[in-house]
């Protein structure tokens, strides 16, 4: 399973730069970069809420679930 963060897409649609968004939502540009580049292991709901409020979007506009190969395996068993 993989969760893809499409923050850069929403930022482009709203025509807002990383520095400006980071300042508006109160996180460091470095942390915003980690989110934009899909390097984040987690995101606080308060941060997600601030991003959605500032970009006028829904969490589903930013987060996307992509099924990885092998995700259909159950209990560690593989298909034969």
TrEMBL record:
Coiled coil: none annotated. InterPro entries: Cro/C1-type_HTH, Lambda_DNA-bd_dom_sf. GO terms for molecular function: DNA binding. Residues 20-62 form the HTH cro/C1-type domain. PANTHER family: DNA-BINDING PROTEIN (PTHR37301:SF1), DNA-BINDING PROTEIN-RELATED (PTHR37301). This is Transcriptional regulator. It comes from Geosporobacter ferrireducens.
């Amino acid at each position: 399973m993989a969760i893809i963060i499409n923050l850069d897409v929403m930022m482009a649609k709203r025509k807002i730069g990383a520095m400006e968004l980071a300042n508006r939502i109160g996180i460091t540009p470095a942390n915003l970069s980690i989110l934009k580049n899909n390097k984040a292991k987690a995101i606080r709901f308060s941060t997600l809420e601030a991003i959605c409020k500032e970009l006028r979007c829904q969490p589903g506009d930013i987060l996307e679930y992509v099924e990885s190969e092998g995700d259909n395996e159950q209990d560690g068993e593989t298909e034969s």
